[in-house]
Amino acid sequence: MVSAAAQAGVVAACVVLFVPMGLAGWHLSRNKVLFFSGALFVSLAVGVHLSPYLPSVPHLLATSFFVPGPGAASAAASSGTSCVPFLHRVSWSDAASAGAAANGLGGGTARTWSWPPSLASACGFARLSRDDASLLLNGSWVMVAGDSQARLLVLALLRLLLDPAAAAAAEPELFRRHSDYRAAVPARGISVDFVWAPFESNLTRLLREDLRLAPRVPDVLVLGSGLWHMLHVTDAASYGDALASVAGAAKSLRSPLPVPPPHMFWLGLPHLVNHMLNTDAKRAHMNGTMLRAYDHEVDQRGLVRGDGGPFLLLDVGKLTQGCGQQCTADGMHYDGEVYDAVLHIMLNALVIESQQRI
Q: Name one GO molecular function term (predicted).
């Protein structure tokens, strides 16, 4: 937004610049050198008086001609452009075998992730400690709804917020088959809900009915689905129609709220390793062609930002591909380090969005 002072400066500049130049042109049209000199003098005078209200030339160039590239994150940070598009640019490397047990691997080498140092420095991306994450989510209600992928994200969140013994004690209850789950971090007033919602119709009902009738909406809302639809329906167009309903319900939930709307995230589909899937039905229906068709519907149905949607995409597919086949035992569910990366991308996005809302 242009400030009132800048607007007043522009109006005054127009008066000072064009009135004398018009008069000079009328009186001095026969003497082009004298006219040019007078015009240059007036222009320089206006420039001196107007300069306090205008951005510097380098800043103007940076904001007007910003093009993502190798140094894009640095340019984004310096020009105030959001760093959100760079959140998924993580690197994967082998970790010591000691980390394998913590991430559910059977042994050997585990994989760990990080942001490149230059990107982390330029945009301020960081893995949050338990204290920092608790402070960020202080007093918040976090709701995650979906299938087993969503459940694994909740596990990553609990492992970050709770001490190891408490997180381990919560895991069996969280993974009760086809059930909801609720946890709390009383010291920080944080509530965490997992809602079992494997189909898109479950998510639409949650948005249109359950949350609309609730006295409060979540501060952070993470939704995701598609695996059950792919297995049991196997129709990308039908999935897209269902996603459009989810998008419409999410937009209607946001619009009438007297308070800031929830931060909304969509949990993308993982990369599927077809030959590792553990049933014939999964191997038949959950192949690469079908996965690409389902991902295309996510991009095209007004669900995620960039397509006019309300959800910021958590690109699980990109992260699982980066980690590789060694990070999955069944070709669908991945090790804890993957969902830790998803979680920290979400938390860093919350930091950025919270700053932008101030």
A: acetyltransferase activity
Q: Is residue 83 part of a domain?
A: no
Name the residue range of residue 50's domain: 4-54
**C-alpha distance from residue 142 to each of 57, 171, 201, 264 (Å):** 43, 17, 21, 10
Q: How many CB atoms lie within 10 A of CB 297?
A: 20
Note the helical H segments in the chain. Answer: 4-27, 32-50, 57-64, 72-79, 98-102, 117-123, 130-136, 148-161, 164-174, 200-205, 211-213, 227-232, 236-254, 280-285, 288-300, 316-323, 336-357
Hey, which residues does 163 pair with through a beta bridge? none
- Amino acid identity of 7? Q
Give the predicted TM-score (pTM) of the model. 0.76
In Å, what is the CA distance from 254 to each residue of 120, 124, 193, 216, 217?
32, 29, 19, 12, 10
DSSP 260: P
Count of structural domains within the chain: 2
Distance CA 61, CA 66 (A): 8
Cα 248 to Cα 46: distance, rounded to the nearest angstrom: 51
Residues 212-269 pLDDT 10s:
888 889 999 999 999 999 999 999 999 999 999 999 999 988 766 567 789 999 999 9
SS3 labels along 43-61: HHHHHHHHHHHCCCHHHHH
* Cα pseudo-dihedral 303, 307, 313, 318, rounded to 10: 120
Residues 163 and 296 placed together within one structural domain of the fold: yes
